[in-house]
Design brief:
Elements: H1 5-20, H2 28-41, H3 46-70, H4 73-97, H5 112-128, H6 140-157, E1 164-165, E2 209-210, E3 213-214, E4 247-253, H7 258-267, E5 276-280, E6 297-300, E7 306-307, E8 313-318, E9 321-326, H8 332-339
Parallel strand pairs: 3-7, 4-5, 5-6
Antiparallel strand pairs: 1-2, 4-8, 8-9
Helix pairs in contact: 1-3, 2-3, 3-4, 3-6, 4-5
């Protein structure tokens, strides 16, 4: 148990994470803690810290597996119990939140329930089976040093994933907004002239390549131009509306997201006073839900990219500038504040 089974299990999970190098697979309880430490306390953007943090976790798991395999038996057992207890705690939180995946063995790994059963059985085995008093195969100091070096080298030497090639499907890049028909002139009355549309810069073209993953911090977009956000340039073309002119709402959604469906049903079903666009994240794995916003313009992000953020996200845009942001759709006050932002 201490020399082969548990360290082999821990090492396998670490190597799967390193193979995929996908920050979206990090369990939410883990990213909640790392967000607090790095983003809230240290002010480091998520896109800067997530990859090194993920590799650091892989390095710790590899080093722990090597220590268990070659270090003193008592130390091996203690490390295994500590790590499996931590894994079980994280899995319990995920199960309680209704998560369908834990990312423990990549995108196609077992469900949190199965992982809890396996980790729990291994933990019970380590607790029940006490090691002999035999010494470790090597001196403790040498094993600790070697494990740390090998774990760090393996985790940080693997290069980052390659960028994703994109294809712009629109030569113009932006679809023109629909213009209301001019009123029919009545005899004896002056013809009403439509209000001039605000001048706006054209929407930037789609880049040739995209990063392998994005972890935007939407609250930081408030007060900034929408077309200055790299993520927004990836949206499929042509755009349903000219986002640089007039007032718009944008909802980032996943087609299997119940909270997204509830937000759209409550605030965006029926006639819309403000042009609204839904942008689908193409990584849905559950049952697809019908979009209740029949008047929304529809767009999506390209597949093959990892989008490290929860949905729904609501933005309000005024002449190309983000004036309202809501990332908590269950808070009616936050939703209304974003909808009414000026």
């Amino acid at each position: 148990m201490c020399r082969a089974v548990v360290p082999g299990w821990i090492l396998a999970g670490a190597l799967f994470k390193l193979w995929e190098r996908n920050p979206q697979l990090l369990p939410k309880p883990v990213t909640d803690v790392t967000d607090f430490v790095f983003v809230t306390m240290a002010g480091i953007p998520r896109e800067r810290y997530l990859d090194p943090a993920m590799r650091g976790m892989v390095a710790v798991e590899v080093a722990a597996a090597l220590l268990m395999a070659f270090g003193p038996a008592r130390l091996s057992r203690a490390i295994g119990i500590a790590m499996l207890a931590l894994f079980c705690t994280i899995l319990l939180v995920l199960i309680a939140s209704g998560a369908a995946s834990c990312g423990c063995f990549g995108n196609s790994g077992p469900s949190p329930g199965w992982m809890l059963a396996i980790d729990g059985a291994l933990l019970a085995g380590l607790v029940a089976l006490r090691p002999s008093h035999a010494a470790g195969r090597f001196r403790t100091g040498a094993v600790v040093t070697a494990a740390a070096i090998v774990g760090g080298a393996l985790a940080f030497a693997v290069p980052a994933r390659e960028g994703v090639k994109l294809e712009d499907t629109s030569a113009a890049g932006t679809a023109p907004m629909a213009t209301p028909p001019a009123p029919t002139p009545d005899a004896g009355h002056a013809t009403a002239q439509p209000a001039p549309e605000p001048s706006s810069a054209p929407w930037p073209p789609m880049p040739a390549t995209a990063k392998p993953w994005y972890a935007p911090e939407f609250p930081d977009w408030r007060g900034k131009r929408l077309d200055a956000q790299e993520l927004m340039l990836l949206i499929s073309r042509p755009l349903p509306a000219n986002l640089n002119a007039g007032r718009h709402h944008i909802v980032f959604m996943r087609e299997d997201c119940e909270h997204c469906h509830a937000l759209l049903t409550k605030y965006f079903s029926g006639p819309l006073p403000t042009p609204t666009m839904t942008v689908a994240i193409p990584d849905a794995t559950g049952e697809l839900l019908e979009n209740p916003c029949t008047e929304c313009g529809k767009a999506q992000f390209p597949a093959g990219i990892t989008y490290v953020f929860s949905t729904p996200v609501l933005l309000t845009i005024q002449d190309g500038v983000v004036v309202g942001v809501c990332t908590d759709s269950e808070n009616p006050d936050a939703v209304r504040e974003a909808l009414n932002a000026r």
